[in-house]
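Can you make up a protein sequence with its backbone structure tokens?

===
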Amino acid sequence: MRRNTSSGGLKSGAVKSRRHARTLFIITGAVILASIPVYFVFKLQEPDDTRSTPVIQGRHILKAQLANAGNATPEAAMESSLWAMAGGDYDAFIASLTPQMQDKMKAAFGDPKKFADETKKEMAKFKGFQILARKTLSDDRVELKFHIDILNTNGSPMNTGSDRTQLMVKLGDAWKIAGDTKSCRAGWDQGSEPEPVAPQ
């Protein structure tokens, strides 16, 4: 019987693709192909000092509005991590993660230039995001439910599926990204607190 020698290559490609998606979108959980033909270049905002940043809660934040919001709250830490990704800021992104996630991302990207090239390319179609609710698991563990907006190449909205959740962990005084983003499971809303809708 003739062996199918192509299956190993296909499997390797599939694993690489899944790893790439998990690597880049531990926060957003979006499906954005690496072959995006459109590049988006914009000036990075200077870090602001809104370290508690209550206006982040419930607000729809466009990519151009992303800021270094600090890490005093889970919501601020999530925005800061996205800000770092959008600008290709490797050091800021790594600092936004727990030590376990730092090791994972360093192994995946290897160096700051690779991170900057890949994240800037793939964040080109990221339009914005909104944190919808939080669930407090303990004093130092919170899950955030959020939604992201992705654009097709023609500028129309892309269907990104269900809302996502992200575990945030407090280390010292700073909140960090912990683990990969997940699809919002059935029944997640029970025991959660909707984020207050802040004025735009």
Residues 6-194 form a domain with the Nuclear Transport Factor 2; Chain: A, fold (CATH 3.10.450.50). The radius of gyration is 17 Å. DSSP finds five helices and eight strands in the chain.
